[in-house]
Amino acid sequence: MTQQHSVANPATRILAASLIGTTIEFFDFYIYATAAVLVFPKLFFPADDPVASTLASLATFALAFFARPLGAALFGHFGDRKGRKATLVAALMTMGPSTVAIGLLPSYQTIGIIAPILLAVFRFGQGLGLGGEWGGAVLLATENAPKNKKAWYGMFPQLGAPIGFLLSSGTFYILSKTMRDEQFLDYGWRIPFIASALLVWVGLYIRLKITETPDFIKIMNSQARVKVPVVAVFAKHPKAILLGTVATITTFLLFYIMTVFTLSWGTSALHYPRESFLIAQMISMLFFALGIPFSAVFADRKGRSNMLIASSVGIFIFGLFFAPFFSTGSLIITVAFQSIGMLLMGLNYGPVGTALAEIFPAEVRYTGASLCFTLAGILGASLTPYLATTLATSYGLSYVGYYLSYGAFISIAALLAARPLMKGNES
């Protein structure tokens, strides 16, 4: 068998390729999240009961999180068997067309029940692609990183989340300000979905310029590839899968409470103007982005587990004060509330990718890290907007905060149990 040799990727190309892909993927994902609150309940579901339509729309939002583990297993298989680069390209080309198709979908009034069915199908495609995208982007960064900068390199794909969200919210804000409501509902919301095709082309161009990671080249040369990575990871690394999943729940729970739920509740029950609340969320995204590099520096110096535990404790405390800060009716206090929550999000999210990658050996790393991340998405995000809305409606906002604090508590317990797995690989 001909041996393959690693060709060094320039650091700027590595980091650009890992960042651009997750930015595109999260942009696609977040435009759906925003539209699921502002548009889809009116266009793709019967309009008899607005609350029921919103809950149905949020249910399609949840569908992608159940598709993501399938994407993690599918793309993880090829990522661990065929290579990180080719699999990353395939994942990008799965989510992109699904997003464009949503932008072209006729409404419920035009084609009836077929509209929400197709919406669910394309949403599933989004989740499938993202399930394979994130893990590959993290490995592209961390497997090319110097030993003492693993978390620093690993935070670049994580930056795709706030950048993608800013692009998404900024796009919807501009559309809302430049169009009448009927224009926005008729065709304006479709523009970011269709325009995402251009972003996918840019990401594809950059990724085709990179070479394979050194760690995968070593696997190829030593013939260490496993036949079925998803079977191997559950058979040989069940503790890592369990603890990695539970430890990551909080990052999903916090993010989707602070974005999807607060947008829905803030613009309905609290009666904030849509444009004003979108601005508040965009400001908070700057704090999210600020927290990510700070957490990476701390994680490289003091350890990934220490950073994750410290941020999770902060989230636990934040949950206890959720209702008093979010229910004041003051936009200024709401901006501060959003910013604190998203700063904590950045501190927690920054080292997650590096930490999950390091608890698995290279031959099953794509599959293992992706499965932990996507399974945590099911537990921490898929039904969160739905459950948070139900809790707030039935029991009050305080119970949304308790829900968040409980998630942080179980993640802290998992992180403490996972310390031995992480410690051996931390700088």
UniProtKB/TrEMBL annotation:
The record's InterPro entries line, in alphabetical order, gives: MFS_dom (IPR020846), MFS_sugar_transport-like (IPR005828), MFS_trans_sf (IPR036259)
As for subcellular location, the record says:
Cell membrane
Example of a GO cellular component annotation carried by this entry? plasma membrane
Q: Which residues form the Major facilitator superfamily (MFS) profile domain?
A: 14-425
Statement: the UniProt record of this protein carries the keyword Cell membrane: yes
What Pfam families does this protein's entry cite? Sugar_tr
Membrane topology designation: Multi-pass membrane protein
The protein's matches in CDD domains, at most eight in alphabetical order, are given as: MFS_ShiA_like
PROSITE patterns associated with the record: MFS
Residue spans making up a coiled coil are: none
Q: Which UniProt keywords apply?
A: Cell membrane, Membrane, Transmembrane, Transmembrane helix, Transport
Family matches, as SUPFAM superfamilies: MFS general substrate transporter (SSF103473)
* UniProt-recorded Gene Ontology molecular function terms: transmembrane transporter activity
Membrane-traversing stretches: 12-32, 52-75, 87-105, 111-130, 151-175, 187-208, 241-265, 277-299, 306-326, 332-352, 364-388, 400-418
Name used for this protein in its record: MHS family MFS transporter
Q: Which organism is it from?
A: Chryseosolibacter histidini
